[in-house]
Design goal:
Elements (H helix, E strand, L loop, with lengths): L3 H12 L8 E7 L18 H9 L1 E7 L5 H10 L27 H5 L5 E6 L22 E5 L6 H6 L9 E3 L2 E2 L7 H13 L7 E6 L11 H6 L6 H5 L17 H23 L6 E7 L32 H4 E7 L8 E3 L3 E2 L3 H8 L16 H4 L13 E4 L8 E5 L2 E5 L5 E6 L15 H19 L1
Length: 465
Amino acid sequence: MITRFTFTVLHFLLTASAFSASPNILIIYVDDLGYGDTAVYGHPLVKTPNIDQLAKEGVRFTQFYAPSALCSPSRAGLLTGRTPYRTGVKSWIPDNSDVSLARDEFTIAQLVKPLGYRTAVIGKWHLNGGLHLEDMPQPRDFGFDYQYGLAAWVKNEKAEKAKSGKLYPDNMYRNNEPVGQTNKFSAELITDEAIQWLSTAHDQPFFLLLTYSEVHTPVASPKKYLVQYDQFLTDESRGDPWRYYMDWADRPNRGKGEYYANISYMDAQMGRVLELLRQSGRLDDTLVIFSSDNGPVTSDPQEAWELNMAGETGGFRGRKRYLFEGGLRVPGIFRWPGRLASGVLVDTPATALDILPTIADYLELVLPEGRAIDGQSITGLLDEDEATSLERSSIFYWSIPTPDGMEYAVRDGWWKMILDPDGQPQYLFNLLHDRYEVHNLVQREPDRVKTLRQKFDIYRASVEG
């Protein structure tokens, strides 16, 4: 049976023609990196020269949002341009779960393949219960020619059993086949694989989704980066640097140095990829996008495995798993010389949901009909020769079960409202005057609450109805 959506996709595939100026596309999506975790976003200690250079050569957003405050739904939103509840992914996906990105979702990889793009996801996937589950949708089902990396986060069975050991991942997969034992930390493995993949078929444009698992727990970095932040380590960390992370709950504090080191390690590894493209003459022909899947794990741990993390939100309230700004606002950097502005700071809000429609706009492609796309093109905020302006067609909308009992958040202009699972408003903030969400105006602004609630109800019905 050919549905309207199937027909639209078939028509799209048949009518798409090669676009002579198709840029390469590199999306670097990192894990749990906070808004304030890099030097260019204000961290006073952590060194991130490659991320800083991207911002210097491109467009940096001060109000860029993840699709969710957790990893799996954010990745679903990034790839599809759709708010995660539409995609079948509502929270993080446990191992061997039957939850996955729905098979009929349409991703960035499927968007660009008709133009002759090579496509790969190298790094963390976390859009199903495991890369070994053959009966579940896998990267190849969403337009990716090549896959290498982790289902979710770094594991090492020997280290777990021995309570100590270098966390060289033993849960990597290449094209859904287990890799087995490795001899490097995760970010270096991912970078090595990306460089190898990028070093072939220079005559085709590429789309690479490069998804580092750093700085998700457990963090693990080579000694040279730990030494760089030695003053922020404790004797516990120096004396037993490879202590297995699940044992931290009954051990002395390890300091913030391990977290700082992991950010700089990740930055250095992504820098290797960018340098390969620079040396091969392809970097300036590549649309590079850098962001994080959600806010950080801060020094306020809520689980045993979160101890000794030191994520920075830039002062914003909340953290990973919460709908306050600290859980949702993330770094957002776009670089494409000659087409995008350079060294520009954009204060207009945008979201990773906007990435798919923006790419479609640059490639002069029409998105398939028959499904809601929640993001919208932000070329007007990015292009060198256009005014920095954008009229949003709808409110910003987030949904995820949270530890504090909230489930929804919306933003309209400077107003942001957070609601409980029943859709009852619990918080209202004016971010223009209260960017840190200190003053709850839900009782003082009944007319504003009513207006935003009406917009929320309409949007929620379109998502969940």
